Amino acid sequence: xxxxxxxxxxxxxxxxxxxxxxxxxxxxxxxxxxxxxxxxxxxxxxxxxxxxxxxxxxxxxxxxxxxx
Length: 68
Prior knowledge:
Layout: H1 9-24, H2 30-67
Helix pairs in contact: 1-2
């Protein structure tokens, strides 16, 4: 498991913000650019999966309430 997988949702958002800020300000050295873009893309996928998981859990909880 990589270090990014051990981060909380909020920590991943903060890391993604850091990467995007560097990219927006052209602060990323060209040698690190591809690495940052790949990490950013991975974080976006992980955050999206987590949001979908939470959405499913919330919808399931509401369904349980409605069936009671």
